[in-house]
Design brief:
CATH topology: Rossmann fold
Strand order of the largest sheet: 3-2-1-4-5-6-7-8
Structural class: alpha/beta
Shape: globular
CATH superfamily: NAD(P)-binding Rossmann-like Domain
Number of helices: 10
Radius of gyration: 18 Å
CATH class: Alpha Beta
Distance between the termini: 28 Å
CATH architecture: 3-Layer(aba) Sandwich
Largest sheet: 8 strands, mixed
Number of domains: 1
Length: about 300
């Protein structure tokens, strides 16, 4: 970040987990960060915690007061396209960075968004697809803006995007739909960069994944926490194989600052489950431009959001 410029950064789901620690580090380095969250009370509590953390560090001589940023909050429900549109309209006229971080993981039973989409695909992919499209003019108004979309190592487990049944109405499997949504995240990030390049628009789109990190996704009642057995099992397993949410935020931060156009960043150790961030492996399906094009067209039809690349 330039020493004389405070970036405007939007972080979806920044009230907890890797989103929270991503926001905290960006505020520490001088950015203005908006925590865009479904639960505004939790977002406000997280923003206060960030302010208090930075104030305590400054008081103890652990922070450069000249570099401190600011944080605010806004309501955003990615499972409601109306909320997505309203949030984008209220966003600053210039957005330097958008971090598509929020998500839901593996609810035991098939659940729908307000617009009738399967919850994981609708929130993780379609919500962010619509948000980025609505914000495109404001990203273009900034100098060399960046969009980081958070995917997952689970994208490699996605069997196939079934365009005849993207909403899993013919058979719902929690893990498959989560993997599909994360594959869609990566396909979207890479296809967005191809389209930006073709249009000559100086915006960077890339992706990151947090490895296996201990976050609220494993206990959220909207996701894995909807099954007590699965939630307890995941919590026990995480103690042995996961890294902290703070460490899980590092790939996102790396992607924002150093990832470059069309890159994919993740932890480098233990099969990309943990460790320092660096280039991550992309599955053959995620690299497929024809599949990405098909998903893009379907996403425009489902959301009604068409990207203006003129």
């Amino acid at each position: 970040m330039s020493d004389n410029k405070q970036r405007r950064v939007l972080v979806t789901g920044g009230n907890t987990g890797i989103g929270y620690f991503t926001a905290l580090e960006l505020v520490k380095q001088g950015d203005h960060v908006t925590l865009a969250c479904r639960n505004l009370d939790k977002a406000n509590s997280a923003a206060k915690k960030i302010r208090d953390t930075i104030a305590d560090a400054a008081a103890s001589g652990g922070a450069d007061s000249g570099r401190q940023g600011t944080v605010d909050t806004a309501h955003l429900d990615l499972a409601d396209l109306g909320s997505v549109r309203d949030f984008a309209e209220s966003a600053p006229e210039k957005v330097d960075a958008l971090i598509n971080n929020a998500g839901v993981m593996m609810p035991a039973k098939r659940t729908e968004t307000k617009d009738g989409f399967e919850l994981q695909f609708g929130t993780n992919h379609l919500g962010h697809f619509a948000l980025t499209g609505h914000l495109l003019p404001k990203l273009r108004a900034a100098d060399n803006a960046t969009v980081v979309t958070v995917s997952s190592v689970a994208h490699k487990q996605a069997p196939k995007l079934d365009f005849d049944d993207l909403q899993a109405t013919k058979g719902y499997q929690p893990q498959r739909m989560y993997a599909n949504s994360k594959l869609a995240n990566l396909l979207f990030a890479l296809e967005l960069q191809r389209r930006l390049d073709s249009a000559g628009i100086p915006i960077t789109s890339n992706a990151a994944h947090p490895g296996i990190s201990e976050t609220a996704l494993y206990t959220s009642p909207d996701g894995l926490g909807s099954s007590k057995v699965a939630s307890i099992g995941a919590s026990i397993g995480l103690k042995f194989i996961s890294q902290s949410a703070r460490a899980g935020a590092l790939p996102t931060l790396y992607a924002l600052e150093n990832g470059g156009p069309g890159s994919y960043t993740g932890p480098k150790a233990l099969f990309e489950s943990r460790g320092a961030p660096g280039p991550a492996k992309i599955s053959a399906k995620a690299k497929d431009p024809a599949l990405a094009e098909q998903l893009w067209v379907a996403s425009e039809k489902l959301t009604g959001v068409v990207y203006d690349m003129s």
